[in-house]
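Standup notes
- DV: blocked on the single-chain target, sequence here:
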Amino acid sequence: MILQHLAVAERHVMQGEVHLARQEALIAELNRKERDVTQARDLLATLRETQALHVQHRDRILAELRRGR
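- DV (later): unblocked, structure below
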């Protein structure tokens, strides 16, 4: 069961990386077009916070596996 949790956590981390990259690309495009990026940057900050939580969750699962649970 813990391996299933790890697989889900790993998938969330990978998906988070994709979301971050897309948002960063969108911000770059908006900047090139001289558009307001305030909301896009706010969303990027939220995505980064969420990604940090995904990584922490994955790392806790890995630590649990190393302890032999």
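- Follow-up: The mean pLDDT is 97.
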